Amino acid sequence: MNSFPDKLLHKLNEREQRNSFRRLTTPTNLVDFSSNDYLGFAKNEEIFQQTHDFLVERNCKVNGATGSRLLSGNHSIYTETEEYIAHFHQAEAALIFNSGYDANVGFFSSVPQRNDIILYDELSHASIRDGIQMSLAKSFKFKHNNVVDLENLLNKHTQTTDNRQPTTDNEQRTTVYIITESVFSMDGDSPDLEKMVHLAEKFNAYLVVDEAHALGVFGKNGAGLVQQLNLHDKVFARIITFGKAVGCHGAALLGSVQLKNYLVNFARSFIYTTGLSPHSVATIFVAYQHLSKSLQERERLFQNITYFKSCLPSTVFSLPSSSSIHSVIIPGNERVKTIAQQLQQNGFDVKPILSPTVPEGQERLRFCLHSYNSQKEIFTVLDLLSTFVF
């Protein structure tokens, strides 16, 4: 057998030298300030038991989907869950994907067409950017959360395309897509969605919003920031994922029935993969029912967010955020890893975010807050942080 390719070995060695080598670790018993389980649903025993009861009631004793959803894998629980999710999010339709990555890659690789224009926030998630790279459309990034820069790009590219109607049978109108997230995963901040909706309407563009880190946190019953702002009827598509506050696995795209039909026919990450098991989909269904009665958990989460911000030491530079995600900038992979290890040695699971995941000089500690964190835990971890930074 041939040895490992030299080019790949060089890339691994380069990561080691830059102190940015990634390794898999197993879960710990440390105080959780790193997971996306914002409401504690992933550890909720009631959801676990009710999912089992749900499957038993439907006499569903199947371990796997057995095939793609277009072949043998589209069990009835999918239909029931997608209808529930669509109603919950005030959308015409919902289509479940195996993960948020699959949903974004499937959408962006299939929906924007050749000669279309994609304008995306420069800090968009890797899955969005990977899907855009697979698209035949032209793409341009705008400065993070900067609606002025976005409008400049819209002016520039709609002047070229003019968003005009076809003048011949063979000519198709260029479509412009605006892509953003309602809560960004590394900074924890949010764009001005109302202004973005206004720009989309002004330039006849289609707004797409990834709500991965807003679901369960913002809006009535945790429905997300788009619904909190009452913009759901003005957004072309929303991507929601279930591995964060919903505490399980999978994702869904929300939009029109036509969009759902299109994705079923053209989204390759949907078509060419085995579907989620009945148990996975049933867990989504049961967890969504718990969202409707999760007021106490969300209230405790926001109390912890407020308390965390009030306790932040003046010796650290933190990015402004009103979400569950709070980042403390500590430049340098080696330095931020060292401080994270010190916090972990003192019992707190705080993870460093290294370059190249974030730009060099923007390395950080990423604190994820939860409904189950205590104020004592928050105070102690930040007090320790202040002693380690200087």
What does this structure look like?
- It is a single chain.
- The chain is 41% helix and 14% strand.
- With 390 residues, the chain is an alpha/beta fold.
- Helix 2 (45-57) crosses helix 11, helix 3 (76-88) packs parallel to helix 11 and helix 4 runs parallel beside helix 5.
- The protein is globular.
Count of β-strands: 13
Q: Supply the number of helical segments.
A: 14
CATH evolutionary superfamily of the largest domain: Type I PLP-dependent aspartate aminotransferase-like (Major domain)
By CATH, the topology of the largest domain is Aspartate Aminotransferase, domain 2
- Which range does the strand content fall in? 5-15%
Order of helices and strands: HEHHEHEHEHEHEHEEHHHHEEHEEEH
Strand order of the largest sheet: 2-8-7-6-5-3-4
Q: How many distinct domains?
A: 2
Domain Aminotransferase class I/classII large: 29-371
GO molecular function: pyridoxal phosphate binding; transferase activity
Keywords: Pyridoxal phosphate, Transferase
Cofactor: pyridoxal 5'-phosphate
